[in-house]
Amino acid sequence: MDKDKSNAASAWMLRFFVIWTGQAFSLLGSSLVQFALVWWMTEKTGSATVLSTATMVALLPQIVLGTFIGPLVDRLDRRKIMIVADLSIAIATGVLMALFMTDRVEVWHVFAIMAFRSLGGVFHSTAMTSSTSLLVPAKHLTRVNGINQSLHGAMNILSPPLGALLIMLMPTQGILAIDLVTAALGILPLLFFSVPKPEPITDVEEGGLALRTYFADLKAGLVYVLKWKGLLYIIFLAMLINFLLAPSGSLMPILVTKDFGLGAMQLALLDTLMGIGIIIGGLVLSAWGGFKRKIQTSLTGIVGIGIFIIMAGLAPRSRFWLVLVASFGLGVSQVFANGPLHAIMQSRVAPGMQGRVFSLLQAGATAMMPLSLLAAGPTADILGTRIWFIGAGALCVIAAFASMVVPDIMGIEATADKQ
């Protein structure tokens, strides 16, 4: 019996982590491309408008089309979706590489490729996130999500200096070529390892007929979320937190330069410490697993986010070290908030519905970014940068404690999937 359990554990770990390693390489390549393209646009145009437009171009496919991708992920083979998405992104990168090599590239070419890569990324990330619960035993999902958070933290630290080094050593098309290699490394494991298919959701009926068409599947996903109050409230909570936190990155340079009178080195140090915090938080979560109730871990992480955002906003001009501590703490807290939340959805949402649920969550959270940036800019200009940090942090804490007294949220792991 023990031997059977050991073999079963080895089987899922081998399959998942081989696929995960390939995806990690692919993510590194994508991060390097992103850095290289932003740098190229900066050098070519020197325009803040161009850079902000590039950000919006990358976000729009996620906002506009993200919700509609979920039914396809739930209906089709998720392994094939990941392969096609990675391959499509690689082909787009190859086209851009050819434009660079022939010196025919224009800014609008970069915009178009960034939008296409973003769309492929939505397909890929939704399929991978939805497949995790089929690859990993439920009891290990929080730990695996902790490892994923550590990976993203490591990318935040490694990609900028590595990208900067590569820019000094090779032309932009050389960095794009690296992305082709990393994309191949992401696809290769998927050619040899299967991804289990979820049971189709056929018990949602309308007029006595099973919902089979695409738009019926889309409607079924919306109904699924709307009927499950705990899940709906959590999605709204995630959207609110994203609305409050999204401007912190864009306002941080102003806080550092105008409020503290410091420069680029201190700003870079903040980014580095946040990345280290994400890595350490992910390692802690993967080893510890969080509280018995995952939602308690997630809400505790949101309280931590709020406290550290407030700390950054209240830090006196002579005590910048408090902002450094806050940046590290924010990285750790983000892991505790996000990791268990993903684990809850992966373990409680029906596997055949996860594509739709995760695409709704991603589209909703992403849509908050441009809205919050539009609100934060004038607010900071009129009332000062610190007011956004203090107000956003306070609202995070209030939202987390308010959620702790909502039975539908606190009981989501017990109610599970009743659809």
Q: Per DSSP, what share of the residues sits in E-state strands of 2 or more residues?
A: under 5%
> In angstroms, what is the radius of gyration?
22 Å
Tally of strands: 2
- The number of domains: 2
CATH topology of the largest domain: Growth Hormone, Chain: A
**Order of neighbouring strands in the sheet with most strands:** 1-2
End-to-end separation: 35 Å
**Structural class, from secondary structure content?**
mainly alpha
Number of helices: 15
Highest-level CATH class of the largest domain: Mainly Alpha
In round numbers, the mean pLDDT is 84
Shape label: globular
CATH superfamily of the largest domain: MFS general substrate transporter like domains
Largest sheet data: 2 strands, antiparallel
Going by CATH, the architecture of the largest domain would be Up-down Bundle
Low-confidence stretches: 202-211
Helix content: over 70%
Order of helices and strands: HHHHHHEEHHHHHHHHH
Q: What does this entry show, briefly?
A:
With 419 residues, the chain is mostly helical.
Provide a descriptive summary of the structure in words.
With 419 residues, the protein is an all-alpha fold. The protein folds into 2 domains: 2-194, Growth Hormone, Chain: A (Up-down Bundle); 213-415, Growth Hormone, Chain: A, CATH 1.20.1250. 84% of the residues lie in helices and 1% in strands. It has 15 helices and 2 strands. It has helices spanning 2-45, 48-75, 78-101, 107-135, 141-169, 172-192, 214-227, 229-259, 264-288, 294-314, 321-348, 354-383, 385-403, 407-410, 412-415; strands at residues 205-206, 209-210. Strands 1-2 form a two-stranded antiparallel sheet. Strand 1 and strand 2 form a beta hairpin. Helix 1 packs antiparallel against helix 4. The radius of gyration is 22 Å and the shape is globular.
